[in-house]
Structure formats: structure tokens, C-alpha cells
Amino acid sequence: MSKDVKGTYLAQSAAAKAASEGAVSDADEGRSQEASAQAAPAKSQRKGSRTKMVPVPSTSIVPERDADKDPVLECRHLGIDFGGLRAVDDFNMMIGRTEIAGLIGPNGAGKTTVFNLLTKVYQPTRGTILLDGVDTAGMDTAKVSKAGIARTFQNIRLFGSLTVEENVRIGLHNQVKCGMWSGMLRLPRHWVSEKEFHDRSLELLDVFHMANNAGDVAGSLPYGAQRRLEIVRALATNPKLLLLDEPAAGMNPSETAELMDTIVRIRDTFNIAILLIEHDMDLVMGICEGIAVLNFGKIIAKGTPDDIQNNPQVIEAYLGKQDTDQGGE
Amino acid sequence: MLKNLNKTTRSNIITYGIVIVAFVVMQGLAMAGAISNSLVGLLVPICAYICLTISLNLVVGISGELSLGHAGFMSVGAFCGLVVAACCRGIVGSDIVRLTIAILAAGAMAAVAGVIIGLPVMRLRGDYLAIVTLAFGEIIKNLLNNLYVGKDASGLHFSMESANSLGMQGGTILINGPQGATGIDKLSTFASGFVLILVTLTVVLNLINSRTGRAIMAVRDNRIAAESVGINVTKYRLIAFVVSAALAGMAGALYAMNYSSIVPKKFDFNTSILILVFVVLGGMGNIRGGIVSAALLTVLPELLRFIGDYRMLIYAIVLILVMILSNNAAFQSRLTSLREKVRRRSDDQAALAVDSQSGGASHE
Fold first, then answer.
1. Which of A36, A230, A299, B227 could form a disulfide with A152 if both were Cys (CB 3.0 to 4.6 A apart)?
2. Quick check: is B315 in a domain?
3. Is residue B56 within 8 Å of B70, Cβ to Cβ?
4. Do residues A58 and A11 lie in contact, with contact meaning Cβ atoms separated by under 8 Å?
5. What is the C-alpha separation between B116 and A245, in angstroms, rounded?
6. Does residue B303 form part of some domain?
7. Chain B residue with minimal CA distance to A115?
8. Residue A222 pLDDT > 50, yes or no?
9. Residue A48: what pLDDT?
10. Are A299 and A103 in contact (CB under 8 A)?
């Protein structure tokens, strides 16, 4: 029910600008669907009297507690083409400071592509990504990580030959500084930073009860522990937004239930926003506050878990078209 | 006491220990005259090859890139070291100080070459990187083949054409194009080689076990994950490449100053491959293994001299056997079980010994 303040403001200003100029500027077109719908009549009546403009709700939602703060992430018309294929198109999303958001959709809908766009593994063909109000255009993956986006991977990508603690220490790379010469010549700075690396990595591992495994080789851990370690490593980069790509994949129901608690605990402990891709609907409907549904690279629905569960377009995307009465368009 | 330290520290101490013990033993044997003259002549080259193997291991084993141009950096260091040593001839009296200055200058020059080559090369990966480093190694060799350096009263003269175009008034020609350098002061000694090994070993082991080294290994293990935690991939690949080049240059200077004359052709593709063979045989990323394999494989042809023409055949067979056995799972598991058995037996004996001394001090 809570409306996104900033989105509304943008839609309003776009509409106001269109009205004052008497024409719709291309740049403003589609800032929100409502805005352009509103502006369309203005165009047809450009020679007549001034049109009365009214504020419209934007398509974005954030939790009420985050409504008065800037959103941590805002995507505007994000899109990428692979050759002729529009893998993601017109992706608009806003995530509140402490929101747990979900991104769901059938296989091949483009969910992981969105993650790769947000972390700049792919450079977007179109659109803007604002992280905490800062445009990430021109940044590479490493810079985006420094700016505050951390992620895990669908197919686990740990530093397999290194130990659990070393994996977390690498996550802390930009948090604890120590130059090449200090390390090579074992200057005092090296010992100070190594101590800090050790203490902070054990502290982080302790949150997930993995401190006892600190000396184990990461590649030899059981599957669930590897997934947890990836989350710890991502948290070590001190992110504002954590992207989890199918965190519950391959987990049994009790492990999934534990994971749900963990995700909520991460949000509460670190006070960050989390965006997760997941196929396990118990998890998504259980902990996500806002959900976006992606199909064929486009958002087909956004809303609370209840909205999504009852949305006919979503049901159609997952289960196919139903007969007669409830069917599609 | 060793048991109290963590695993990497313990392993590093063992590596240093092996090097120090080997030096003491070889020095003792050489002084007692127990080893042949030809083997004594090999001591400095062995030290140089060990340094080269350790440094190449930083690129191939730790950074995970295949570089086939290591001899190129070695030659840059070798010829730079020669020129610097010749320039210091009248100025610095002590041989050791002169050698140190020459080796440091060689390292710096090779590092510069490493940066110049590394910047374009680090855009590439895998096979492409290997081919381009191979090409750069050859380019360096050919540049040195056409380099003429002379020294007279007015200073140093450089030319890329011929010895005549140097415009020398008296003085000496230090590097004479394809004929290389002659009249080198033989400054290198086994002791200086040993010190250079320790320096190389310290630099590489310290680097590996630091923030920078972890970043390098992270890039090797998973580039995308390393980027996603904010590691600048190009920067850390370049650091490994340049440090390795600098260390190779230092080893090259040591190597060159063991001979009275040296030609650029010595540092060709075959030398690069030879160093790579040492690294691969010792185990990629295994510093200690590289040291052992470099020493043994340099000595082996000399030890096999008594069987004459067959020695290269035996050398090849040894190479093949080591490669096969080190990659054979069945052989590995048999070796492990054998080791376990030996350990158990020695434990039993230790226990017996403790039992027999009733009331003896408690052992760990």
C-alpha cells in the first residue's frame, strides 16, 4: 500500500514538464507507464487549453519503513541485447534500504542476466542503474563491488583451492588495506592488517557458525556450507545490497527453512537490502516483502507476495493459459 | 616446536631449511674437493635456475598464466647486469658490492621490461597469452642480437647498427651484437647465488602469504568471483608478472656473470621451455618442488656423463617417468599408503621406546 515517494515525484515532474512544453519529450517517455498514459492526451490537445495534471502512482513499491529514505537501488529502463535477442528489456525496479526483495520467473526469463547487469558482468545496452543515488554507468565489476553491491552465484564460485578463512579474507580485500611492499617486506603494516583480516573473518564466519571450519579447504566443504560461505564472502565486502542467486538450490526443506531465518537475520544484523532469485516459492513467499516477476526479459508483475500469488499473468507465465473465464488478456 | 605453527609457516620453514642445508652440504663437499670440477662449475647456474623456477612459479603456479617468454627477462637482466658491473669497475672496489648493484639494476631493468610487455599482454588469457609471451621473448632476443654497447673515457655508447657506429675512442666494447658480451668479470659465486635464492624465496613466499598474494590466487581460482568481491583483476595479474620478471632479471645477471662470455642466443625459446619444465615437474604452485626439480634436472646430464651419448635419452626417460608417475592416481595412492605404513611403524617404535624408559619425560 505504501507508495514510492520518489517515483511519484518523478512521474509528476515528467508530466508537468510535458504539460508546460506542450509536447512529450522523448527522454521522459515511459518514465512510468502511467506518466506516459497521462501525457498522451496532452499531446492531442496541444492547441487547446491547458490540461489539468494529477499525480499518479509510480509502478515501484518499497516497504513503508524505507519510504522516507532514498532507495538503495533504482533501475530505469534497464535492457540488454545479445545479438538480436532482447534478453532483458525495460526493467524498472526500486529496492528500499532494508527490503528483502524477490525476483522470480520461469527458467530463461532473464533473472540471472539482471544480476549480471547490476554487477556489470554485462554492460547494459540501455537504461540506468542508480546505486544509492549514484549512477553506475562506466563502472566495472570490481568498482560496483566497491560501490556496494555484493553477490553470490547460481553455480557456486568459491576460491576452491584456498581455505574457508582465506576466502573470507579475499572478500575483505577492500575493507582492510595493505600494499604489495608491506606484504613482500613484512613491514609492520602487514602484521597489523593480517591480524585485522583474521579477526574480522572469524567474526563473520561466527555469524554463520562456520568458525570451526576456518582452516578447511573451501572446495572440500559440503554443498550447503559452500553456499553459506559464498554469502559470508559477499557480506565481507560490506555491501549495501546483497544479491543472492538461487540460495536454496539443492537444499532440503529443513535446510531451506534455516536459510530463510538466516536471510532475515542478515538483513537485521547488517541492516542491508537483499534481492534474491529463487524458484522455491515457500522461501520467496515466506520472506520477500516485494516481488517482481520476470518473463521473457520483461517485468510482468510487481507487488507483495499476496498480489503476486493472485496475479493472472503470473499464473499464466508459470502454468500456461487457463481456459475461458480466467484466461490471459 | 614446529607443530605449534600453522601449516603454511611450517611448510615455508621446511623450504628455507632444505635450501640452507643443501648449500652447507654442497659448500662443504666443494671445499673438501669431493665433487668434480664440472659439477663445481654448475653450482652457480643451478642457483640461477632455481631462482628462475621460483619466479616463473609465481606466474604459472600462483597467478595461473602460461608464460613462455621467461628467458627474455632473464636476458634483459643478464645484459643490463653486465653493463652496470662494467661501469662500476673503476668506481666500486668490492666485488660483492658491485655484484649487488649489478643484480639490483638488472632486476629493475627486467621489471621495466615486464611492465612494458605486461600492459598489452595482460589483456589476453590462456593460449593467447602463452603465444604473445613467446613472441616477446623472441623479440627481446633479436633486439639484443642487434645491440652494441661500448664504454670509453667519455661514457657509454649505444647503437643498434654495428660496432663501428658506436664512435668509440679507445675503450672496450661491452656487448657486440650477436657475438654477445666478452671479457665479463666473473663476479658470481656460489655464496652469492645462495643469497639470491634466499632473497627470491623470501619475496615470493611473503608475497603469496599476504593480501596481494591472496588476491592473485583468487584471480587464478575464479576470475569472475574475484571481480565480484572488488579485486582489480588486471592489476594483480600484472603485479605477479612484473615481480616474476624482476626476479628473473636478477637471476639472469647472476647467471651471466658466472661466464667470461655470453651470447644472446643462449636465452632463446629452449631456455624458456627448460624453466617451464622445471616448474611443471616440481608441481605448479609448489615452490619447494620447483627448487628440487631445477637442481636435480640441471645436475642430471652431468651425472649421466659416464654413459656418453645415451645420457640425453636417459634424461628424456626420467622426464617422462616423473610426468607419468606424478599424474598416476594408482601410484599416488600406493605411495600414500606406504608413507602411512612407515609412519605407523615409527610411531610404534617411538611408543616402545617411551614404554621402555619407564617414567620418562612425556613426549608429544
1. A230
2. no
3. yes
4. yes
5. 40
6. yes
7. B228
8. yes
9. 60
10. no
Give burial (CB, 10 Å; 0-12/13-18/19+) of A221: buried
Q: How far is CA B304 from CA A225, B42, B49, B292, B296, in A?
A: 53, 14, 19, 18, 12
Pick from B222, B228, B235, B241 the residue to mutate for testing the A interface (most A CBs within 10 Å). B228
Distance CA(A117)–CA(A107), nearest Å, equals: 18
Q: What ipTM score was computed for the predicted complex, to two decimals?
A: 0.81
Q: B356 pLDDT band (50/70/90 cuts)?
A: low
Option in A151, A176, A193 nearest B228 (CB): A151
Q: A173 CB near a chain B CB, below 8 Å?
A: yes
| Predicted structure pTM score | 0.83
Which tens digit of pLDDT belongs to each residue from B323-346?
787 777 777 788 888 888 887 777
Half-sphere exposure of B61 (CA within 13 A, CB side): 25
Q: Which domain holds residue B87?
A: 2-310
The answer to whether residue B336 sits within a structural domain is no
Helix (H) or strand (E) holding A281: helix A281-287
Q: pLDDT tens-digit profile of A256-278?
A: 999 999 999 999 999 999 999 99
DSSP B60: I
Number of folded domains that form chain B: 1
Angle at B254 between CA B251 and CA B257, to 5 degrees: 145
Beta-carbon contacts of A50 under 8 Å, excluding residues fewer than 6 positions away, are A19
Q: Is the pLDDT of residue B169 over 90?
A: no
Residue A22 confidence (pLDDT): 42
Residue A90 φ then ψ, to 5°: 50, 55
Residues of B in contact with A158 (CB under 8 A): 221-222, 225
Question: Residue B100 sits in a domain of what CATH number?
Answer: 1.10.3470
* Dihedral angle, C-alpha B343, B349, B351, B352, nearest 10 °: 170
For residue A128, what is the enclosing H or E element? strand A126-131
Confirm whether B200 is domain-assigned. Answer: yes
What tens digit of pLDDT does each residue of B243-263 get?
999 999 999 999 999 999 999
